[in-house]
Amino acid sequence: MTAHSYLEYTLILLGWLINNGIWNTITATGLFALPLLFRLFSLWLKAREQSSNKNDAGALTLTGMENTVYVSLLVIMFTCIPLLNIDITTMKYDIQRSKQCNFSVPAIPEQSGYAPLVSDISGKTASVPIWWYLVHTLSKGITTAATATLPCKPDLRQLRFDIQHTRISAPLLSQELLDFAQECYAPSRVRLKQREIALTESEINDVGWMGSRWFLTQSGYYDTFHARSPRPAWPYEHERDAGLFNSGNGGYPTCKQWWSDADRGLRSRLIALVKPEIWQGLRQLTYNRNDYEEAILRTMTSPRNITASQSGTTYSGYGGNVDPTLINQITHNTGSVINMLKSFFLFPTYDSLRQALPMMQAILLMALVASIPLVTLFSAYSPKTVITVTFAQFGLIFLSFWWELTRWLDTSLLELMYGNDTQNLIGMQNSGDGLLMQFVLGTMFIVLPVFWIGAVSWAGIQTGNSLDGILKTVQTNVTPKMRNKKQSSYGYDDDEN
C-alpha cells in the first residue's frame, strides 16, 4: 500500500488495525450471523405473504434464501475477511512526483517529525480483505497517473510562506540589523530627503529597504556613513577609521562594507539563514538570482519579520518615519487590527488551510477504513453498501490529485499577478492577498473538493442501486422457473385448487 503524506502513511495502517480488531470481535461473538438470520427470516415472511400455495411458499423461500446466502458469503469473503497482511515495512511513501519534477526528495517517514507516531505502530501487522486492497491499489494508481499529467511547478504559496516565516533567531544578528538601520539606513534616507532628488518609481521602491542598491551604488550614502561602534568582524583601519577611537574590539566599517562584504557582511549572513529547499524551489523559477535574493532579504528584514523574530520593534515601516511618533504607531496598529478582522471574517488563513486539508483527508480515510466492518454488518452485507463505500474510498484517495491541481493553479495565478514585480516577487511582501484572490482560493481549496466528493458519492449511490436492481431482477427471473418446476413435479397448475 502507498501513501501520499506522512500522516496517511501511519493512519492507514492504524485504520486497518482497528478494522481487524472490530471484525475479530464481531466474529468471536457471533454477531456476524445476526444480519443474515434477519434477512432469511424476512424472506420467509415475505414468501408466505405473497404465495397462495404452501408448496409455492417453500419453493420461494428456498430460492430467496439461496440467493441471499450466496451474495452474503461473497460479500463476507471479499470485503470482510482479512487475508493480505501489511505492516509498516510494506507501506510505501510515494515520492514519484518529487522525482518527476526534480524537487528535493522528502525524508522517509521514520526520519520526519512523524517518527514517534510511526514507532507507535511499528512491529504491528494488519490484514486487508482482497476487495479493499484492490480498491486502494487502483485508486492510488489512478491518482498518481492523474497527478503526473500536471506540469511541474514549485509550490509558490508554500515557498512564500516559508520565506515569510524565516526568522532571525540569533539575538546578536537582530540587534546588529537594528544598529544598521539606525546608523546607516536612517541617515541615508534623511540625506536623500534633504537633497530632494527626483527618483523613478523603481528607485522609490528600491530605497524602501535597508539593502537598497541605490544607497549602495550612489556616492554620499552607504560609502560615506559608517558604523558608530566597533564591529569585531572588521579590523581597525587607520585610513578608514581615522579620528575614531581604537578600542581593540574591531573597526568601523562603512555601511557598504557592513552590508556587502563576503562572509562577514549582513547580506551573506542573512542569506545563510534561508533553508536549502527554499533556494532549490526558487532556482526552478525563471527569475534572476539577484532578484529573488533581494526579495528574500527584503522580507527577512521587514519590520514585521524582525518584530516576530525578537518580539520587539526594531524600526518602522519602509515608507514611514524612522523615529515614529505615538500617533503614527496608533495608526499603524489600528490598520493592522482592521486587516486582521477583515481576514478573519472573509476567509481562513489559506496557508494553514492548505496544510490542514491533506491531514483531514488522512484522518477521514482512517475513519472510513475503521468503520467498514460495522457499516457492512449494519447493511446486512448489502452489495449496494459495498459499492457506495468503494466509491467513497476512491473519492477520498483521489483528493490528493485535487490538492496538486489547486496548488498548480494557485502557483500560476501568483506568477500572473506578481511575475513582473521584482520588488514584490511572488507576493513575498504581502501579509495577505486581495479579496478576489481569496475568493478564487476558497473555490479551489474548499468548493472544488466538496463538489468532487458530492459527485462521487452520487455516482456510488446510483451504481449501488443499479447493482441492487440487477440482483433483484435475477432473483425475480429465477423464482418463476423454480415455481414452475415445482408445480410440474406435483402435477398441478396455478388454476387448480
From TrEMBL:
Q: Which regions span the lipid bilayer?
A: 12-38, 69-88, 362-381, 387-405, 435-461
Domain TraG N-terminal Proteobacteria: residue ranges: 11-472
Q: Could you name the domain of life of the organism this protein comes from?
A: Bacteria
InterPro entries under this entry?
TraG_N_Proteobacteria (IPR012931)
Q: Which residues form a coiled coil?
A: none
Matching entries from Pfam families are given as: TraG_N
Keyword annotations of the record: Membrane, Transmembrane, Transmembrane helix
Q: How is this protein named in the record?
A: Conjugal transfer protein TraG
